[in-house]
C-alpha cells in the first residue's frame, strides 16, 4: 500500500481511515485475479521479465503495483488526476 494506491482507489470511490485499513483491504484481493491480469497478453511488460516475476506471488503483486505507479505518474498532476485519467477511471466504476 502506498499513496499512489490510495489516490487511485480514492478516485474510484474507496475511502480508508488509515494506512493499516488500506493495507488490510489490499491484502484481501484475490491473488488469482491479479495473476490472471498480469499474465494476460494485454499487460504491458517484457515477456521475459514477466515470466521471471510470475515465478512467485510477490512478483505478481509487484507487476500489478508497477502498473498503478506508472498510471499515476502519467496522470497525476499534484494530487489531482488529469482529464484523461478521469475518463479511464469513470469507465471502471
Write the layout of secondary structure elements.
Layout: H1 3-11, H2 19-27, H3 31-38, H4 47-53, H5 57-75, E1 76-77, E2 80-81, H6 83-92
Antiparallel strand pairs: 1-2
Task: Provide an overview of this structure.
It contains six helices and two strands, in the order H-H-H-H-H-E-E-H. With 93 residues, it is mainly alpha-helical. A hairpin with a 2-residue loop joins strand 1 and strand 2 (80-81). Strands 1-2 form a two-stranded antiparallel sheet. The two termini are 21 Å apart. The chain has helices at 3-11, 19-27, 31-38, 47-53, 57-75, 83-92, and strands at 76-77, 80-81. The chain is globular. The longest helix is centred in the last third of the chain and has 19 residues, at 57-75. It has one domain.
Distance between the termini: 21 Å
The major sheet is characterized as: 2 strands, antiparallel
- Round the Cα radius of gyration to an integer and report it: 14 Å
Count of β-strands: 2
Number of helical runs?
Answer: 6
Average pLDDT: 91
Strand proportion: under 5%
The geometry reads as globular
Strand order of the largest sheet: 1-2
Domain unit count: 1
Order of helices and strands: HHHHHEEH
**Helix content percent band:** 55-70%
Low-confidence stretches: none
Specify the structural class: mainly alpha
Amino acid at each position: 500500500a502506498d499513496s499512489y494506491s490510495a489516490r487511485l482507489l480514492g478516485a474510484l470511490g474507496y475511502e480508508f481511515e488509515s494506512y493499516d485499513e488500506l493495507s488490510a483491504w489490499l491484502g484481501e484481493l484475490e491473488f488469482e485475479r491479479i495473476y490472471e491480469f498480469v499474465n494476460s497478453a494485454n499487460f504491458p511488460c517484457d515477456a521475459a521479465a514477466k515470466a521471471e516475476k510470475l515465478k512467485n506471488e510477490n512478483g505478481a503483486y509487484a507487476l500489478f503495483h508497477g502498473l498503478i505507479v506508472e498510471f499515476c505518474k502519467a496522470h497525476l498532476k499534484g494530487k489531482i488526476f488529469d482529464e484523461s485519467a478521469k475518463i479511464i477511471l469513470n469507465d471502471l466504476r
